[in-house]
Specification:
It contains 9 helices and 10 strands. By secondary structure, the chain is α/β, with parallel strands linked by helices. The strands form 2 sheets. The chain has a 6-stranded mixed β-sheet, with helices on both faces. The structure holds adenosine-5'-triphosphate (ATP).
């Protein structure tokens, strides 16, 4: 078990949005959290990643209690996070964005990323950054492009590169393909599935596009009004009468 959340409760003022939500994610699993708009998916995500603190319940990562640990401390122990809105350094080029992330990882793990006054990354750091950029479809000719001029889809891809440079054991993806064109979505789905096959990384994701969910997820959890109404493999969840009722009228395409 890599991630184990039990009895998560969360309120915004008087509005209670999570009512005792529990979930368990196994190593190398792709686990999707779905549900209608306002069901509490993003809020649950924030609790899992440490952006918000739960008012009750526990979050454990490989047995370690993270419940009160803020997001940046979780990132150091193997949590990778990409955000709905890409957080990249717009003023510098693609290569530098990835290099910064690798150097931060090395610094946290007590390794020296090289002398800061030299302004050029160590050869192995640069090589690693090149591999990541190539893996996510940025050819050499684009490495020195300014990040601020990227298209939305490319920003998202760079965001993945930055997250992967931290060498996470678990990737937390909150609507990773939101706002992407259908062809970018297809390409990103392929990239993520390849990444998973090659590295065995665990993925926890929310996503509105059911085609992507059914292609990628090993298991799904359905939230409705902050409660878990179904959990299991995609076929079982798709055929669940309660889930069908919740999605009635919305269709499975856009949950
Ligand atoms: N910062 C906030 N302050 C007050 N209420 C909030 C806040 N964020 C979310 N909510 C409310 O909490 C509930 C759950 O919201 P949340 O964003 O977690 O749902 P969601 O399932 O991710 O929705 P969507 O699919 O639209 O992204 C909603 O009723 C929402 O209006």
């Amino acid at each position: 078990m890599i991630l184990d959340a039990q009895g998560i409760e969360m309120s915004y003022g008087a509005l209670k949005v999570l009512h005792g939500v529990s979930l368990q994610v196994s190593e190398s699993e792709t686990f999707a959290i779905i549900g209608p708009n306002g069901a509490g998916k993003s809020t649950l995500f924030k609790v899992l990643t440490g952006e918000r603190m739960t008012s009750a319940g526990t979050v454990r990562y490989r047995g370690e209690d993270l419940t009160k640990l803020p997001a940046f401390r979780r990132a150091r122990i193997g949590f990778g996070r990409t955000f709905q809105v890409a957080r990249i350094f717009g003023e510098v080029d693609l290569m530098t964005n990835v290099v910064i992330s690798i150097e931060a990882r090395l610094r946290y793990s007590g390794q020296s990323p090289g002398a800061w006054w030299r302004w050029t990354p160590a050869a192995d750091v640069r090589l690693e950054a090149e591999e990541i950029l190539e893996r996510f479809g940025f050819p050499r000719s684009r490495w020195s492009d300014d990040a601020q001029y990227l298209s939305h889809g490319d920003r998202k891809r760079l965001e993945f590169c930055i997250a992967l440079a931290t060498r996470p054991d678990i990737l937390m993806l909150d609507e990773p393909m939101a706002g992407m064109s259908p062809s970018d979505r297809k390409e990103m789905t392929k990239l993520l599935m390849r990444l998973k096959a090659e590295t065995g990384i665990t993925i926890v994701m929310t996503e509105h596009d059911m085609d992507i969910i059914f292609e990628m997820a090993d298991r799904l959890m359905v939230l409705s009004y902050g409660e878990v109404i179904a959990i299991g493999d995609p076929e079982k969840v798709r055929d669940d009468p309660t889930v069908r009722k919740v999605y009635l009228g919305q269709g499975y395409q856009h949950a």
